[in-house]
Amino acid sequence: MAKTILDMDVVIVGAGPAGIAAAVTASRFGLKTALVEDSPGPGGQVWQETPSGRPWSRRWLNRLRACGAQVLGGTTAVCPVDQRTLLVETLDDHHVLAWRHLILATGARELLLPMPGWTVPGVFGAAGLARLAKNGWPVAGKKVVVAGSGPLLLPAALTLKRYGARIALIAEQAPIGRLIGFALACMYLAPAKLLQAWLYGLRLANVRYKMGCWPASVEGDVCLKKVSLVHKGLKIAIDCDILACGFGLVPNLELARLLGCSIQQGVVCVDQWQRTSVPGIYAAGEQTCIAGMEHAILSGRIAALVIAGQYQEARPMLGACSRARRFGHALARAFALRPEVLGLADQETIICRCEDVTAGQLQPYTDWRKARLMKRCGMGPCQGRICGAALSHIKAWPYPTARPPLLPTRIATLIEGTMAVQKAANEAKGDQI
């Protein structure tokens, strides 16, 4: 039971690279810091804490353990209670965190686009399947098609291959011309990324890689049997066991929307110091630009340094952070989704998987509000996270308005958390009198 409020100088939501870098930096200056992460431990999707983790990720994780920040693993941000408190919930308890400064580092998730048959068992997000494989989900001997868009397809395919999957094809929807242009941009903006892509190519040299190719439909009943793809105007059918399909990343903006942060073009608006439009709230990492791990670390450090008043230490990082953002913008242009991919769903294709709402049922509606009221689209357990992102691309609908709680939660958490904040407010008024 949340009887007291945990008073913090800095609360950071999200323990990926941006959140970890921010927590380590803030703690270095004696700021009382709490790091909230819904996974059991820190690392996020990029730095999964395993014995085989890379040396640089282990270094940051070791710094986090030694810095003194309070890491709240397995903890979900439920909702803000007022302008300076955040209600969070664990598996069997909950807390109220009072903050003077808040850093949003909630990362991103895969963009999944509906197509005929995409609800058949055996269709996964590409990065999601790679994570499952790392955690023991059996892919050995399975024939896998990796398809979609973006540089994450290559590491996902390599991970699956490493765990014994047979990669039948890697299909990238972006045309070759855009990829060549992106490679040229990387020579200036991020040469290390270009080298990394080349190394992935070497390790996947025996795997077919097609550009300007995308999945069009999936066949199967109780399990996946066949994937149909389009390449150069022709359809290709491939028998396979698994389709690993992802069309890039979209930031997790639900908490930022709920807090009233300004959002434009699908990201949180920040200045060079990572400050959002709401005083006291900062954003770092993929909240502000899908630009990779280096940008996440830099932006997390800058936010924490500004909170600590260390502008002189932060200033030399601004150039590198700006360059990383330009890389992110080049990435977005190179892998922009083509109209054919956005128009894959037919009238019978399910758009909202939680509520079984089809594309045909949504045809009469022009916005989220009407679709929600009439068909419950986006009102299931995921609260529009999957169909919301898809429809923002397919129909250009703005994202549904964020409402508390951010995820399904216990009624006791909401009641007791609110009561704790009210009690603290009453006590503060009594002290003033």
Q: Overview of this structure, please?
A:
The chain is of the alpha/beta class. It has 15 helices and 21 strands. It has helices spanning 17-28, 55-67, 126-134, 153-162, 176-189, 191-203, 254-258, 293-307, 311-314, 318-334, 339-342, 359-362, 368-375, 385-394, 411-432; strands at residues 5-13, 33-36, 70-72, 76-82, 85-89, 94-104, 108-110, 123-124, 143-149, 166-172, 209-211, 213-220, 224-231, 234-239, 242-247, 249-251, 263-264, 267-268, 281-283, 350-352, 357-358. The strands form six sheets. Strands 1, 2, 3, 4, 5, 6 and 19 form a seven-stranded mixed beta sheet that branches. Helix 1 (17-28) packs across helix 2, helix 1 packs parallel to helix 8 and helix 3 runs parallel beside helix 4. The chain is globular. The protein starts with a strand and ends with a helix. The relative contact order is 0.15.
List keywords for this structure.
15 helices; globular; 433 residues; alpha/beta; 24% strand; five-stranded parallel β-sheet; single chain; seven-stranded mixed β-sheet
